[in-house]
Amino acid sequence: MAPTKTTQSFVPVKEVRNGVVVLKNDGYRGILMCSSINFALKGEDEQRAIIGGFQSLLNTLDFSIQIVVHSRKTDIRPYLALLETRMQEQSTELMRLQLREYIAFIRNFIDSSDIMTKLFYVVVPYAPGAGGIVSSTPSFLGGTKRPATDGTSDSFEENRVQLEQRMALVVQGLAASGVRAVPLGTEEVIELLYRSFNLSELENPIHLSA
Questions:
Q1: CA gap 170, 89 in Å, rounded
Q2: CA-based, 20 to 30 A from 113: which of 33, 65, 165, 175?
Q3: Would 2 be classed as within a structural domain?
Q4: Which of 24, 68, 168, 209 minimizes the C-alpha distance to 16?
Q5: What is the pLDDT of residue 165?
Q6: Is 62 in the same domain as 91?
Q7: Structural domain boundaries enclosing 14
């Protein structure tokens, strides 16, 4: 009888260290959180500049990146609780009536449709021992086994510097399109991974594992 595999055995992540995802195949991943742009509201010249900036970024990179859109259902309950408190604090009946009608409108609206929040990320890979080359795979948290590193602190720091140089290049390229990007810290990366592997908490989960 084959031994039962634990949940952790299906997760390709070995550890998250100094904001860097270290995979079981010794690959490294950095995650950038990006701002959004309402492209449709931009003028024609602005749209061309955005497209040109993004094209320049893609032409500059000599490694692959993954663009992830993370959809979450927005919890409106704290906002409704705040409105209820404000309604009780109003000194005039007219203001209380207006707030009561507004609360009823919000409740009816969320009952008929889901309100989604979208977060945007760019995953930047680095493969120690393979010249930094990462093969193109559907998932950046999986992929081909790479030569193992010795796992020392010095080795990690060297690889982290290489990864951060790549991330800085992506940040600079995105800025040319008007997109702000910042690297996630350790706790933020852990939260993102947790939500990604707990699919019941997401409306549209990220498929991070191969």
A1: 49
A2: 33
A3: no
A4: 24
A5: 94
A6: no
A7: 7-74+116-201
